[in-house]
Specification:
alpha/beta; Rossmann fold; seven-stranded parallel beta sheet; about 15% strand; binds NADP nicotinamide-adenine-dinucleotide phosphate; KR_dom; oxidoreductase; SDR; 3-oxoacyl-[acyl-carrier protein] reductase; 3-oxoacyl-[acyl-carrier-protein] reductase (NADPH) activity
Length: about 240
């Protein structure tokens, strides 16, 4: 069996200054790609280009894409990773708590995909990867806003697949389970222990394990995978 070296691509990762986004950017860099990250604060990993953008602001995203295109050429791989939580039980969740999370996690991904699709359609090549969550499939008490936003990404990716699939563009969803990051370290100890008990793998994952699946989805080997939801959850979401 022979292994071809990966085709170097221009990659943009949103929220690449920390957590899972940082690991995704590092993994693409290690494979020899041209990597840019968006950040509201801080920097992407050494060797990447950091551009400022807020995914709730289409104009800032447009400027960020233009900056990346000027430096590295059209964006060929985009990873919509930026996301937030605002966990509250339904009785306490305000409409603003709901719409703010949707605006970042779902409408934010729409803005990123819409801007990225321009260059991808022209090039007749593109890899769109949306970072969802196991709770988008399972639901989660206290996360009605978050799980709704993460389920929405599946409809987004599948509809993009139907619209743009014939132009060499794939759109896939990665659904991580519990990953060691700032987002999960704020959970109370007892909650973390209860979650670990329910995960068949018996442990949380690392950002790097998610990143490796994403770089593979962007690779030439995954050209015929589109509209898929790939779990990286140690079996937590099985059957959903
Ligand atoms: N950790 C988990 O267990 C887990 C599980 C399933 C799915 N996920 C998903 O994985 C993704 C990354 O999560 P993480 O654990 O790495 O979270 P994190 O450590 O909290 O990092 C979130 C990233 O998103 C960025 N971001 C948030 N709002 C933004 C906005 N309006 N515009 C631009 N960037 C924004 C943050 O930028 P700043 O630094 O500027 O705030 C940061 O870079 C999220 O979509 C999350 O829902 C995480």
């Amino acid at each position: 069996m022979t292994f071809a070296p990966p085709t170097p691509r221009t990659v943009l990762v949103t929220g690449g200054n920390r957590g899972i986004g940082l690991a995704i950017a590092e993994e693409f860099l290690a494979l020899g790609h041209r990597v840019a990250v968006t950040a509201r604060s801080g920097q992407g990993p050494e060797g990447s280009l950091t551009v400022t953008a807020d995914v709730t602001d289409a104009a800032s995203l447009d400027a960020a894409f233009s900056e990346v295109e000027a430096a590295y050429g059209p964006v060929e791989v985009v990873v919509a990773n930026a996301g937030i939580t605002r966990d509250l039980l339904l009785v306490r969740m305000t409409e603003e708590d709901f719409t703010d999370v949707i605006d970042t996690n779902l409408t934010g991904a729409f803005r990123v995909v819409k801007r990225a699709s321009k260059g991808m359609m022209k090039a007749r090549f593109g890899r769109i990867i949306l970072v969802s969550s196991v709770v988008g499939l399972l639901g989660s008490s206290g996360q009605i806003n978050y799980s709704a936003s993460k389920s929405g990404l599946i409809g987004l990716a599948r509809s993009v697949t139907r619209e743009l699939g014939s132009r060499g563009i794939t759109a896939n969803v990665v659904a991580p389970g519990f990953i060691e990051s700032d987002m999960t370290s704020v959970l109370p100890e007892e909650t973390q222990a209860a979650y670990k008990k329910s995960i068949p793998a018996g442990r949380f994952s690392t950002p790097s394990e998610v990143a490796k699946v994403i770089t593979w989805l962007a690779s030439d080997d995954a050209a015929y995978i589109s509209g898929a939801v790939i779990p990286v959850d140690g079996g937590l979401g099985m059957g959903h």
